[in-house]
Amino acid sequence: MTIDRKGYIEEIFAGSQLAMAIGETQSVPLANPTVANKLTTYVKDFANSVEVSKDFFDDNLHGVWGKIVSDFALKARRTQDSEAFGWFRGAFTTSLTADGSAFCSAHTLIGAGTETNFASGAGSALSGASINTGIVALTQQKDQAGVVMGNTPAIMLVPPALFKKAKEETDSALYADNANNAINVYRSAYGFVVYQSPYLGSAAGGSDTAWFLLARNHSVTRLIRQGITTALRDWTMSNNRTYLYQYNFREAVYAPDYCGAWGSVGV
Q: Which of 255, 265, 215, 221 shows the shortest CA–CA distance to 96?
């Protein structure tokens, strides 16, 4: 979502209740829309630069300058990826929704009650059984008004270490590691897509065991204040005959609400 300011302010709408059956001349029930949990998300400014001498730039031996620019462009994109999936790296701890709780944790509902959208401990590791547990939990998940939403998974998000296992469990024609030729219902009935990212795994400071199910109505959002912008300062504008190549972009990733997402610690 693009924005035109440095901060984005919103509140969470609790949602209305299910419709009620009424008589022919009965007054129409009146919903009481409730809004709470104000959230302010501030855009971060990302930047980097490289300074090279005029002689280095002019000579461009072995195409080094071109490689520098290409690497800068790649690292800018990778920074965006790392920041985006950083939300999921902290999903069980530091990535907080508008209610002040971690994205995948126990949440106090605006309409009273609690809702838990995560699993941990025994049985939470990725398997056919734990996938079914997650699908059931996502399907029965209640929104802020306490209404069961019937969410179905559209995406399974895993680190690279779990990608093979995830595809075996969800994309094979028959159920994995089963001698009975059982039909793989995850493929035929749900058809969700498995995605992996290196920025979810332990190499990027994440987890090699955690995995997520996301419905189409999940609220994880990338706020874009400014796309990637580059600039080259000419050597005549410096006092030491150097060029300065730089880029910056401004964005933030957040999720105001838990609904539509379910996570498993995997251990």
A: 255
On whether residue 58 sits in a domain, the answer given is: yes
- Are 82 and 233 in contact, with CB atoms under 8 Å apart? no
Quick check: 159 and 207 in contact, CB under 8 A? Answer: yes
**Among 1, 12, 51, 67, which residue's Cα sits nearest to residue 34?**
12
| pTM reported for the whole predicted model | 0.88
H or E element that contains 44: strand 44-53
Does residue 12 sit within a domain?
A: yes
Distance CA 134, CA 126 (A): 10
Which residues form the domain of 178?
Answer: 7-264
Neighbours of 154 (CB within 10 A): 16
Sequence-distant (6+) residues with CB within 8 A of 16 are: 31, 33, 145, 147
What tens digit of pLDDT does each residue of 58-94 get?
888 778 888 988 999 999 999 999 999 999 999 999 9
The CATH number of whichever domain residue 121 belongs to comes to 3.90.1690
The count of domains in the chain is: 1
Count CB atoms within 10 A of the CB of residue 25: 5
Residue 1 within a domain: no
The H-or-E segment that residue 227 falls in is strand 221-233
Mean pLDDT of successive 10-residue stretches along the chain, which has 267 residues: 93 86 88 86 95 89 85 93 97 96 96 94 93 95 94 96 91 64 68 93 97 96 95 94 95 96 96
Is 2 inside a domain boundary? no
What is the Cα–Cα distance from 172 to 185, expressed in whole angstroms? 10
